[in-house]
Amino acid sequence: REVVMAVERRLGFEPVDVEFEKRGYDIESHAPGGTLRFIEVKGRVAGAETVTVTKNEILTSLNKPDEYILAMVEFRPEGKRVHYLRQPFRREPDFGVTSVNYDFAELLARAGKPS
Hints:
five-stranded mixed sheet, alpha+beta, globular
């Protein structure tokens, strides 16, 4: 989360860590103009096959599609690389599902540079 919060500060936002409040995202990031972004952070070693996302995280992203960002921190031998994916999930999970594994490479392929 610290890596993503540093990226947010460089972009001119004011991030606040809310991970332990279980809101469906890890960081609330305030823009100078008053807008708010909700960022879920997932970190994986380069080459990892999957990333696990909770039902609450998916539902939050679907309820706030324009404000939600999935930030993926890829740990590579040469250092950390941060990717942002907007509107990462397409549908809500079934009723009894608590979490879903997503293909990490597929998510990275749809992601871009932080902005």
